[in-house]
Amino acid sequence: MKTIYCAGPLFNAQERDNMTCISSVLEEAGYKTFLPHRDGIELAALSKELAKKAEAIDDIDSLLAQIIFYVDSYQVANCDGLALNLNGRVPDEGAMVEAGLAWSFGKPVVIYKDDSRSLLKGKDNPLVTGLANFEILDRLELIPMEFQKHFANGYHSIKLDWDRLAVHQSRVLKKGEELYDFLRDNRGHTLDCQILRAKLEF
């Protein structure tokens, strides 16, 4: 079963509902999805656990920022494709980075947008739309069909080969995998900031 990473804005209930709809239509079509606010590390819970042993709030924020970067980079690299929700007054910055990563790893990117707002006189930034061959879908049900086209046209899942990736990519993704596994295995337990800091070191 192929896994699709769902990237987009998650800053309010409506945005999260929109992302859940994208995930649902893909799952109904037989795909597995990675939906960050559902499947990622629960940052609010992690923040509370870290606060029990943190020396300062700034320390917690620094650790969380590093964890988000490494874990999300790993999850994007580990998926088979990425669905990018381009809705919003401006594209979500984090989703743009995730889409760029997916494209650089040779994974198909499918863009969904039913929002009329845009950057350039009714057009979206070509550096974004180019990631999906300048195609933007405006109906949810078209998303799984577009991925099916990509996979039917010879795209095969690329198993991560750490030795073939650039050195900095390899280091980041390995760190993301280690952190994700550690945090998943210790969910619900009090975490020590010093242990996390040590795990973040290369």
User: What gap, in angstroms, lies between the N and C termini?
Assistant: 33 Å
Bulk shape: globular
Regarding quaternary structure, what we see is single chain
Mean pLDDT: 85
CATH class categorisation: Alpha Beta
Number of domains: 1
Q: What order do the strands of the largest sheet run in, or round the barrel if closed? A: 2-1-3-4-5
Characterise the protein shown here.
The longest helix is centred in the middle third of the chain and has 22 residues, at 57-78. The chain has helices at residues 13-28, 36-39, 43-51, 57-78, 93-104, 126-129, 142-152, 167-185, 193-200; strands spanning 3-7, 32-34, 81-85, 109-112, 136-137. The protein is an alpha/beta fold. It has a single domain (3-200), classed as Rossmann fold, CATH 3.40.50.450. α4 (57-78) packs across α8. The protein has a 5-stranded parallel β-sheet with strand order 2-1-3-4-5, with helices on both faces.
Please describe the topology of this protein.
Elements: E1 3-7, H1 13-28, E2 32-34, H2 36-39, H3 43-51, H4 57-78, E3 81-85, H5 93-104, E4 109-112, H6 126-129, E5 136-137, H7 142-152, H8 167-185, H9 193-200
Helix pairs in contact: 3-4, 4-5, 4-8, 4-9
